[in-house]
Design goal:
43% helix, 19% strand, alpha/beta, 5-stranded parallel beta sheet, 134 residues, 5 helices, 5 strands, Rossmann fold
Length: 134
């Protein structure tokens, strides 16, 4: 393990597809981010508190607690309400986008997503987070 590598922050990647989590982890690690993974909404809620990520990438369709409800719960918990949530999902219809934003998401991007677009979305969300008044 290389300890000298500078980390740009910790990102929680939540998707029930292990191949997509691996892909996102590789993209984000190449961008200098530490990555934590979750495969369900319940795991997201636990890991968001335990690991204090700077950003959460969240799928909409997961077993158990879905992405929209997970996002609402994150935004209603004072321990996680300031963590930006970006939906990365195959659900690209207007109603899903609207529900995602109304649940408190910072952004909503559709799969498949290019590595460049993923990193740019992460950078934009983190920049907005860092410029918010407390």
């Amino acid at each position: 393990m290389i300890a000298a590598m500078t980390m740009n922050g910790r990102i929680l990647v939540a998707d029930d597809d292990p191949d997509l989590r691996l892909l996102f982890r590789l993209i984000l690690q190449r961008g200098g981010y530490e990555v934590i993974e979750a495969d369900s909404g319940e795991q997201v809620l636990e890991r968001a508190i335990d690991s204090a990520p700077e950003l959460i990438l969240l799928d909409v369709m997961m077993p158990g607690l879905g992405g929209f409800e997970t996002c609402r719960r994150l935004k209603n918990d004072r321990r996680t309400d300031n963590v930006p949530v970006v939906f990365v999902t195959a659900r690209d219809d207007f109603a899903s986008r609207t529900e995602g934003m109304q649940s408190g998401a910072e952004a909503y991007i559709s799969k498949p997503v290019s590595p460049q677009n993923l990193i740019q979305c992460v950078l934009n969300a983190l920049k907005r987070r860092n410029h918010r008044p407390d």
